[in-house]
Amino acid sequence: MKNTYKALLAVLSVLVVMAACTKEPPLFQYKTGSEPIFAINDAEIAPAPEDSNIYRLKMNWTNPDLATDLSNAKFITQIDLAGRDFSKSLSLTSFGVFKDSFTNKEINRFLLDNGVAIGNFAELQVRLVASYANNNDMKMSNVIPMRFRAYKIPPKVPLPSSRKLYLVGSATEGGWANPVPEPKQEFSRIDETTWGGVFKLTGGGQYLALPENGSWDNKYSVANANVPGLEEGGDFGFNLSSNFPGPAADGLYTIIFDFQIGKFTVTPFTMQHGLPSQLVAVGGATPWGWNNSTDNPQKFKRINSSEYQLASIALKSNDGYLILPEPGNWDKKYGVPDNSIESARLEGTIKPQGADFKSPMEAGNYRILVNFATGTYKLTKI
Questions:
Q1: What is the pTM of this model?
Q2: Residue 2 burial (C-beta neighbours within 10 Å; 0-12, 13-18, 19+)
């Protein structure tokens, strides 16, 4: 019995040694793909609005030769603003093909959402990312620069039917009383699709924007007031469920509603001299001359939260004047950054403590409009 046990042990030892000397076959490894060569059909596109649904930008690329059935090869085409890293790009995903295309409206919406002004060309970059379906072995293509001109589309948010806009809410001076006090809680219409105003707000309150003063039938609001950072701006819409959250601190704020892209912004109003309670014109170009007395009759009328208008004033040609927030006080004034610019005679940027305005080359009666929401002025001959 003992001899039999020794014999079995010897046999097992030989088998173990033989097994240890046997090599396993190498694990199978998929081959690495190659970087695709990417191409587009046009490097500059300026579409007409009526061509929104046309697939204008067409792209193609070479086969990255992935070790899989072609149907499992994943391709992502990306468009981003020049100089960015594609982390917030416009993208399309396809499988098993070597071409794709974007519609004009897809690119245009991306540009408008990223702040590109209508009518302007945007500098863009386009590329392809190829990989397996599970995103393994990603291969980036060459990057191609291109330009696309943003065009006007119907506003994302319906415009106020009254063409007016009012602010109401616990964050405002008038509270939730409706109708709201005019003119200080009425927005100015900056352009066809943009309204703005400068308002005194109470910290921690809420507000809505109304298209009709005195009516609760319709409102502009937000979908979710708890979105982080929404007190500084974000998306808004028509008759959504939540009030706008106001800023945390009391103060003057500029609120801008851009209906074209459905965005609003709220920023502290920090212009020197604050928001004036009155304005007067004084200077050699005006009938009152440089007589800076408190009874100056050349008074502006406040027409909304941010606009002040001098309906008619006779201006001499090629002379100077200033706009003052306190008649009789030379320490506070509004002028222009540079009065040597010819276009500044009729419109431009206001500057506290700036250079004198230069009157138009042609004498006559003019309307002067100053908007503190935009920091601008405009003269119109009447």
A1: 0.72
A2: exposed
